[in-house]
Amino acid sequence: MSGETIRLTAAQAMVRWLSVQMTEEGERFIEGVWAIFGHGNVAGLGEALHGIGDGLPTWRGQNEQSMAHAAIAYAKGQGRRRAQAVTTSIGPGATNVVTAAALAHVNRLPLLIVAGDVFANRRPDPVLQQVEDWGDGTVSANDCFRPVVRYFDRITRPEHLLTALPRAMRVMTDPADCGPVCLAFCQDVQAEAYDWPVAFFEPRVWRIRRPAPDPEELSEVAGLIRGAARPVIVCGGGVIYSGAEAALAEFATRHNIPVIETQAGKSSLSQAHAMNYGAAGVDGSAAANMVAGAADLVIGIGTRLQDFTTGSRTLFGGAKLVSLNIQPYDAAKHGGVSLVADAKVALEALTAELGDHRAEAPDPAIRADWLAAVDAHCAAPSGNDLPTDAQVIGAVQRATGEDAIAMCAAGTMPGALKLLWQASRHGYHMEYGYSCMGYEVAGAMGLKLARPEREVICFVGDGSYMMMNSELATAVMRRVPFTVVLTDNRGYGCINRLQQGTGGAAFNNMYVDSRIEVQPQIDFVAHAGSMGAHAVKAGGIAALEAEIAAARSRDIPTVIVIDTTAVPGPGDGLAGAGHWWDVAVPEVGKTEKLRAAYAGYLQNAARQRLVN
């Protein structure tokens, strides 16, 4: 070190800089780094991470995609207030993370990806695992990240970090632009030394801004609410990321406006809140979809208005749409009236603007009838039939307290949980923007790291478990306890039902309908146990409840396997639950079943409203 500079490698400079980027609460924004080392990052970043030690801790994962899933779940569990980084080698190590990057991008969650890249000096080209483009010498495998991250940079000189790192942090801490960042770090540059300004390593606090609404937009939206007889609020994940839960509860209660939930927004209000009418849309409750269908004004708050929420644009009929969102892109969707602002600030401003105005409340019996139907549907079975997913959910609900968080990602369970899980505040964690099979186990670990004081229940089907389960071993090694409820219906039961519901024949989803010689008999208990988890098979609903309670005493993951039926869907027996979903049906085909499905498709598609 001399004067106002310090000589470090680029990798050493990166980790030192990341270690002093702080939240307003005085914690590192990047809590630590998940790492699988290879020739593209072991000598440069590996040495730097070893050197900084607990200043920026490193954790070993089992798969690049799943350790990124854990980092994403951590960020979601922290309400985007903190994040984690993932480093990989070049080639397959990097491209394994592309799926996770897309997941973070869709869900607007921060993730720092530091992927090893080819040699900037090109002396050893083509280096091991290098993807060569015959027409573009600047391309590497890491260019796959460009469409699935919010910010991409290739570090080909050490001093590029002076601008790239602050830009990366700006994206991850910006509530409007929040998402994943990829820094493709050329492996020779990682090891290259540079005289860095000492001031570059001064600690910096990153404040998450709260933009106030434009006065004219606020006035217009307040006028629309005053003029509406039957408004309804669609609550999205932006409510949670804004910390606007109390503001939403006050707004809905004071102005008598029912709240219906998206997957990301569920648990902003507890299910016990009188204005919470449950899940909206395709996987929606009878109560929520009834008030949505009758609404003359829909107020979206922090939601992307995905097709599951809008019933593929058929749910809200002729209602006017207002969209309160911090991201103008989302606020302008579906021709809605935009209110671009932080959710908490805007709700407080709207409450003040509306004063004592109260809308016409829906009949509370709608909500009461729905909740009674949920209780009946989730009750323990009386016979010896295999339990349904709903009955499994009921058992877990009865065996846990208000501190439990139900989490999931793909298959039948997301729809069933959104319908039936009666969440406490922040008692729900669903990755449904990308609905990524394989997120569940790694995500449960990341969520538990973010919320160690809460009981984490991971619902996963046998199909998703088979796709990605290896971070169970990591959770055992790190002593991260959570409970996995593994429902085994012997195949992809959710898509099997969709396949048949759209006129198709049962084909290639359930093992029994696949072209195989021997039906598999997978011992999930033995498999999970081989990685060190406590694993057990529950013989029924009563046994499941007992095992859920017993799991709370352990400091390692518990995997409870239970056989379930593949036949019923999540809304069976619940009149009016659910809504149409636009899944294209073949226009011509040989069977009457397919022709009938196409006729029904045309009827529903005719109700789609493409412009407000």
Automatic annotation (TrEMBL):
SUPFAM superfamilies: DHS-like NAD/FAD-binding domain, Thiamin diphosphate-binding fold (THDP-binding). InterPro entries: DHS-like_NAD/FAD-binding_dom (IPR029035), Myo_inos_IolD (IPR030817), THDP-binding (IPR029061), Thiamin_PyroP_enz_cen_dom (IPR012000), Thiamin_PyroP_enz_TPP-bd_dom (IPR012001), TPP-bd_CS (IPR000399), TPP_enz (IPR045229), TPP_enzyme_TPP-bd (IPR011766). It comes from the Bacteria. Pfam families: TPP_enzyme_C, TPP_enzyme_M, TPP_enzyme_N. CDD domains: TPP_PYR_POX_like. Residues 219-350 form the Thiamine pyrophosphate enzyme central domain. Residues 411-562 form the Thiamine pyrophosphate enzyme TPP-binding domain. Keywords: Hydrolase, Thiamine pyrophosphate, Transferase. Its EC number is 3.7.1.22. GO terms for molecular function: 3D-(3,5/4)-trihydroxycyclohexane-1,2-dione hydrolase activity. Residues 56-129 form the Thiamine pyrophosphate enzyme N-terminal TPP-binding domain. Belongs to the TPP enzyme family. NCBIfam families: myo_inos_iolD (TIGR04377). This is 3D-(3,5/4)-trihydroxycyclohexane-1,2-dione acylhydrolase (Decyclizing). It comes from Paracoccus fistulariae.
